[in-house]
Every structure is written in C-alpha cells, then in structure tokens.
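Give me structure tokens for this 417-residue protein.
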Amino acid sequence: MKRISIILLLVFLFCTVAAPWAASQKNTPALPHYNVFDLGTLGGTYSLAGGLSNSGWVEGVSTLTDGYENPVFWHNGKIADLGTLGGPNGDAGWRPSDAGDVAGGSETGAVDPYAENYCAYGDNLICVPFFYRHSTKKMTQLPLLGGNNGWAGGVNDFDVIVGNSETTAVDPTCAGTTEVFQFEPVFWINGRIRELPNFPGDSDGAAFSINYFGEITGYSGNCTTAFHALLWQNGRAVNLGNNLGGTQAEGVDINNFGQVSGLATLPGDVNYHAILWTWGVGTDLGTLPGDVSSSGDGLNDWGQVVGGSYDADGNSRAFIWQNGVMTDLNTLIPANSPLYLMEATGTINDEGWIAGIALEISTGDTHAFLLTPVFGSTAESAENVPRARVVLPENVRRTLQQRRPFGNLKGGPARPR
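Here you go.
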C-alpha cells in the first residue's frame, strides 16, 4: 500500500510539472510580425544585446566614442553605461534579472603577470567577474577560485549568478594558447563563490545561464574544446549529450521548464546545428536554407528558440524556431528596415520580445536591436516578406565568428575590430 502511494505521488508530481510545459508547447502562438528598434550605442560604432529579461531589461555591450567598450543596459529605449572596475573595457553578455541586475566581465587596471588576455581585448589586463545591482547603481567584483581572472554570465531573480573562474592549477591542455590556468564553472550566491562539477575527466568549463529554480546550463571540456553540454541540478552535472554525430556540444540558455538550447557538432566537428534538449532528449533544429551551421542562443518558456544561422562564408541571419520550423527573422520585420538582423544574441523572453545584433545597412556599423511582436489577425496572417540576403563586411563576419560558441568558450561577447 505504501509503495502504491509513493507511485501515485510521483505520477502526480510528474503531471504537475509536465502539464504546464505541454500546454505551452501546444498553445505556442503563430509567428507575428515585429516592430524593430535600433538600440544604439554609447557613441561608438558597435553594440550587441547579450541578454533580455521578461520585464524588458536588455543588457549588452557598446563601444564609446574613444573605441573602448563598456557593459550597458537598455530600458524603455534608453541606454545606460554601467562602467568598469578600473580598466578601460568590460562587457555583459547574458540574461539579466527582472529587477535589472546585470553580471559580466570587466578589466581592472592591473596587468596580468601571465599575459592571458582573459577578456580578449589584447591589452593583457586582469579580467574579473562583476555584479551590478540596479537598485544601488553599484558594480562589485565577485570572488574567484584563487586565480586572477573570471567572467560572470546569467543572473536569476534571486540574484544567483553563474559564470567561470580561474584556479591556480596550471592546465596542460592550454598549451599553444594564451591561457595558463584551469577555469571552472561556478555560481555566486550571497557574495560567495561555489564551484560546479565538470563532467568526469574534463579539466575546464563554464556556466552560462540559470533559471528561476536554480537549474544551470553550460559546458565542460578542456581549455579549447567544449566536449559536454551540461545541465546542473542540485549541484550535480548531467551530460545532455550530442545526438548529431559530433564530439562537441554546449548548453547556452535554459528556461523554467528545464529545456536547454545550445548547439552540437555534426560528424567531423566542422559544422554544428542549434539543438533543443527537452528532458535530456536533443532535437536538431537545423539551419535556414543554404546555410551550414546554426546556434541556439536563447529560448523562452513557450519553447521558442532564437539564434543565428550561418553560411559557409560566415554570413549570418537571425532566426526564430518553433514547432519544428526555423524562420528568418528578417522576413518578419518591415521590408524597408534600415537594419539587417544578423543574430538573436540577446535571446527571447516570454512576451515574445527578441534582442540581438544587426547590421546598419547604410553605414556598415553593428547595433543592438530589439524586436517587439505586432499581434492581431492582420499581422499574424501576413505572409513572410522576402528580403535579399546581405553579404556582411569582413570585419563584421570576423567579430561574429569570435563571439560564437566554440569560438569564445569562456562566454564573453566578441571584441569589435
């Protein structure tokens, strides 16, 4: 009798968790058209949206008029410079909390004695993780695992922050790179750092995103390769696997139902596809027609996934995927838009807002964008608007390539060139 009661309890709990998720998938709305907003810069020529909250906060990075780069957030159409921790550059590249709290990486004014160039700005300054609390307008440095460098990613509504930190252990898998020490996936809670386990046998890793319930995703591998996409639950690392035939995979974003978006390599590990893991089962999201690779940069609780789809030359298009279909977001915005949407780097929230990086066609500059859906029978029934593919400038393609997963494993946005 006791055993039957336990089984009934487990069935009840399963249904309680599964039913809302199943309903969300069944009732995912038809794709709307979108209003598109240029979020602008701090005076420079480059900005990128790295994260988007359900309350409409967008975090990211922008160049200033002097060419240096600072973390920023946008809210109600206004941009705010978050500053740095003493160095000339910093960035914020993942999802902020609904209160507008942001995390990222900042250079300090101190030279790294090992010249690791951890923040990738080429000036060899020490790079540390930061937390910016919106209510106090204060940026603070987060503790490390004994090393000099680290970087912070997503923040949930309880201000639990995830990221990575160097240790003091020399990493032999870093031979041939600027890196020297192991870097490990971590989270910070109440100002204290906690290390997350790697997949057995892996030496390095990073945590990128955390949901409301404290589930975390990222990867582990070695200094140069993300071998295992991971889901951390209650401190335990679960390997999400790669069912696309390659040896590499990376979890990028996680929603409140525990679904993870990311990417995994195909046989030969040259090309990769966006992937959606649902309860440990990976679905290949494919690419847009004519492309060879894609990445699932973010998802929401409806199971919609956004990211970028790339051709063999590195030209990219922002996409949205839902119900088994990937759609070019450029076909869902006004045909006369001055922006060409390159990648939805800033994810998608539960309101259907999407943020990312776009090419300003008239100047060749790259600007952060925000899309907001236009609902109503006319918008929802409109056919996709054809739009010619844009060949991106070489410097833009290079910047995007450096930012993409597998090209910038520790998690910070790419540097403009």
